[in-house]
Amino acid sequence: MVGTLEGKQAAEYHLTLTEGQELSVLCHARKQNVTFFVKDAEGHMLHPTAQQCAHQTWRTQVPHNGKYTVAVFQHHGAALKGQSAFYRLHVSAH
Protein backbone atom coordinates (compact mmCIF):
# COMPACT_ATOMS: atom_id res chain seq x y z
CA MET A 1 0.00 0.00 0.00
CA VAL A 2 1.33 3.41 -0.87
CA GLY A 3 0.02 6.89 -0.37
CA THR A 4 0.66 10.49 0.50
CA LEU A 5 -0.44 11.91 3.82
CA GLU A 6 -1.74 15.47 3.80
CA GLY A 7 -1.74 17.45 7.05
CA LYS A 8 -3.71 15.75 9.84
CA GLN A 9 -4.98 12.99 7.56
CA ALA A 10 -4.37 9.38 8.65
CA ALA A 11 -4.51 6.42 6.28
CA GLU A 12 -6.29 3.50 7.93
CA TYR A 13 -6.25 -0.13 6.83
CA HIS A 14 -8.45 -2.81 8.42
CA LEU A 15 -7.75 -6.53 8.66
CA THR A 16 -9.91 -9.30 10.09
CA LEU A 17 -7.57 -11.64 11.94
CA THR A 18 -7.80 -14.78 14.07
CA GLU A 19 -6.22 -15.33 17.44
CA GLY A 20 -2.61 -16.50 17.12
CA GLN A 21 -2.01 -15.16 13.60
CA GLU A 22 1.22 -13.22 13.19
CA LEU A 23 0.69 -9.65 12.00
CA SER A 24 3.70 -8.07 10.32
CA VAL A 25 3.99 -4.37 9.41
CA LEU A 26 6.83 -2.72 7.50
CA CYS A 27 6.60 1.03 6.98
CA HIS A 28 8.84 3.13 4.72
CA ALA A 29 8.80 6.92 4.69
CA ARG A 30 11.40 9.47 3.63
CA LYS A 31 10.34 11.95 6.28
CA GLN A 32 11.05 11.24 9.94
CA ASN A 33 7.70 12.64 11.03
CA VAL A 34 5.72 9.65 9.70
CA THR A 35 4.71 6.82 12.05
CA PHE A 36 2.03 4.17 12.40
CA PHE A 37 -0.07 2.47 15.03
CA VAL A 38 -1.85 -0.87 15.33
CA LYS A 39 -5.06 -1.25 17.34
CA ASP A 40 -7.02 -4.38 18.16
CA ALA A 41 -10.79 -4.77 17.81
CA GLU A 42 -11.43 -3.11 21.20
CA GLY A 43 -9.24 -0.12 20.33
CA HIS A 44 -6.26 -1.15 22.48
CA MET A 45 -2.92 0.00 21.11
CA LEU A 46 -0.65 -2.91 20.11
CA HIS A 47 2.10 -0.77 18.58
CA PRO A 48 3.31 2.47 20.16
CA THR A 49 3.15 5.57 18.01
CA ALA A 50 6.50 6.93 19.19
CA GLN A 51 8.50 4.99 16.60
CA GLN A 52 8.94 6.39 13.14
CA CYS A 53 8.63 4.52 9.86
CA ALA A 54 12.28 3.56 9.84
CA HIS A 55 12.34 0.60 7.45
CA GLN A 56 12.04 -1.87 10.34
CA THR A 57 9.52 -4.68 10.53
CA TRP A 58 7.21 -4.82 13.53
CA ARG A 59 5.57 -8.19 14.35
CA THR A 60 3.15 -9.59 16.90
CA GLN A 61 0.84 -12.51 17.38
CA VAL A 62 -2.68 -11.17 17.60
CA PRO A 63 -4.28 -11.88 20.99
CA HIS A 64 -7.85 -12.56 19.80
CA ASN A 65 -10.20 -12.72 16.81
CA GLY A 66 -11.42 -9.46 15.37
CA LYS A 67 -10.89 -6.46 13.15
CA TYR A 68 -7.47 -4.83 13.55
CA THR A 69 -6.53 -1.35 12.37
CA VAL A 70 -3.16 -0.25 11.00
CA ALA A 71 -2.94 3.51 10.50
CA VAL A 72 -0.16 5.71 9.13
CA PHE A 73 0.01 9.38 10.08
CA GLN A 74 2.30 12.40 10.54
CA HIS A 75 3.44 13.70 13.90
CA HIS A 76 1.47 16.64 15.27
CA GLY A 77 3.91 19.43 14.31
CA ALA A 78 4.17 18.44 10.65
CA ALA A 79 0.42 17.87 10.43
CA LEU A 80 -0.34 21.35 11.80
CA LYS A 81 1.98 22.89 9.22
CA GLY A 82 0.00 21.15 6.47
CA GLN A 83 2.99 19.20 5.23
CA SER A 84 2.62 16.15 3.03
CA ALA A 85 4.56 12.91 3.26
CA PHE A 86 4.83 9.85 1.02
CA TYR A 87 4.75 6.39 2.65
CA ARG A 88 4.85 2.74 1.65
CA LEU A 89 3.28 0.17 3.95
CA HIS A 90 3.62 -3.62 3.76
CA VAL A 91 1.13 -5.50 5.93
CA SER A 92 0.82 -9.27 6.10
CA ALA A 93 -0.78 -11.87 8.34
CA HIS A 94 0.12 -15.55 8.54
UniProtKB/TrEMBL annotation:
Annotated protein name in UniProt: Peptidase C-terminal archaeal/bacterial domain-containing protein
Q: Which organism is it from?
A: Acetobacter indonesiensis
